[in-house]
Amino acid sequence: MDKLLINGQRKLRGHVKISGAKNAALPIFMASLLSSDKLELINAPELQDIKTTIKLLKVLGVVVSKKETSINFNASKVNNFDAPYELVKTMRASILVLGPLLARFGKARVSMPGGCAIGSRPVDIHIKGLEAMGAKIAINHGYIEASSSHLPNGRLHGAKIFMDQVTVTGTENLLMAAVLADGVTTLDNAAREPEVVDLGECLQKMGANIQGLGSDKITIKGVPSLQGASHKIMFDRIEAGTYMVAAAMTGGEITCQNVDPSKMESILQKLLESGAEITTKKNSITVRSNKKLNAVNITTAPYPGFPTDMQAQFMALNTFSNGVGEITENIFENRFMHVQELRRMGALIDIKHNTAIIRGGNLLEGAKVMATDLRASAGLVLAALVAKGDTQIDRIYHLDRGYEKLEEKFNQLGANIKRIYE
Ligand code: UD1
Prior knowledge:
By secondary structure, this protein is an alpha/beta fold. It has 14 helices and 24 strands.
C-alpha cells in the first residue's frame, strides 16, 4: 500500500486548478444508463472512484470511450443488470445504478453497499422511495433485488415521496428513477447539494422534465425516453475547500481556479471567522493569511449548511489555532476516526458524544499516522503540512479515491510531499 511522506512547515503559495467534482461525476456517469444515445461528459476527475464507476458501467454493458478532454458513454447495449459485490464493496456510490436500471430496464440486482467506514450508512430511504414508485424489492444473500415487471408496461409510476432524512445519493437515485416513470413524482425533504443540481441539469439536457432543483421539493414529470447530451461536470467544492484551508493554515496564499464562490459560502464563512483573508472573483477564490488563526465552532448539516466532508480539514485547522473550537458532527456517527491520529501528532482533542472539543495553540509534530477514510486523510495531510518534521501517512488509497493529483498539486504550491510506492 502506498504511503505519503510529508515534510511540514512550508508556506504554500500559488494557483491551483480545481478538478471536476467526484460526487457530481459519479451520479452523472450512472445517468448514462437512462438513454440509448451517447452521453458526453467533460471535466471528470481522474480518481480511483471514477475508474471503479467505469468498470461497473462496463460490466453492465455500457460502452465507455475516453477522448482527450471528455468521456463518452453509450448504454444502447446494456445486457447485464447485476452490480456485483466485488465492485460495490469498494465504492458505496455504486448503489446509484439501482434507480436508472430499474427505470429503463425494469430490473436491477445490486449488492448492498460498502465504502468509507464512517457509520452504518443504510439505504432504506432509496428502497422505500422506489417501492413507493411501484417497485418490488427484496434483499437476498446480500443483494438488493428490484423489479417493475409487474407494473403496466413494466414502468415505475410517479409517487409523492417524503424522505425521512436528507440524503444526497438517495435523492439522486430517486430523481433518476422518476425521470422515466409514468406520471409525476415529488421528492420532499430532498437534498439541495450543488452536485444534485448538477445531475438534475444534465438530466434536463437529456430531455427530463424536472422542477425545483436546489430546493427541498423536486417535482419530476416522467417522460418515455431520454436522449443524448453533452455536459460539463461542476468543480469539486471539497477539493477547493481543502486547498483553501491549507493556505490559511500555512500562512500562505492560494488561488483556487475554476470554482464558483456562490457554492462555497459556509466554508468561506468559517475561514473568515478563523481570521483568513478572502478575495472572490467570478471563477476564483484567493485565501491568504499571515497571522495565527482563531479556532472556529462548526456544526455539520446538509447543504447549505457546513459539509461533513470538510469537517476533518477544519479539525486540523483548529488544532493549530488560538483558542478552543467545537466541531459537532450531525451526519455520520463514526466520523471522528482522524482524532486519534491527530492526537498522535500532538493535537489536544476531547470527544463528547458527537462533538469534538479541540484546544488549539499546540505545535504539531510529525508522526506515523494512518488514513482511515477519504476526508479524514485530507485532515491528516493538512496537519502534516504545518507539523514540525516528517509525517508518514499510511493507507492513502483513501485519498486516491477522491483527490486528483494531490501531491503534484500541493508540491506545485511549495509543499514537500513524496509518495512511497509499495
Ligand atoms: C454523500 C456523499 C458524501 C457525503 C454525504 C453527506 C456522494 C457519492 N457521497 O454520501 O461524500 O459525505 O453525501 O453530504 O455523493 N441515510 C439513511 N438512509 C438512507 C440514506 C442515508 O439513514 O437510505 C443517512 C446516512 O446514514 C447519513 C445521512 O442519511 O446519516 C446522510 O447520508 P447521505 O446523504 O445519504 O450520504 P451519501 O449520499 O452516502
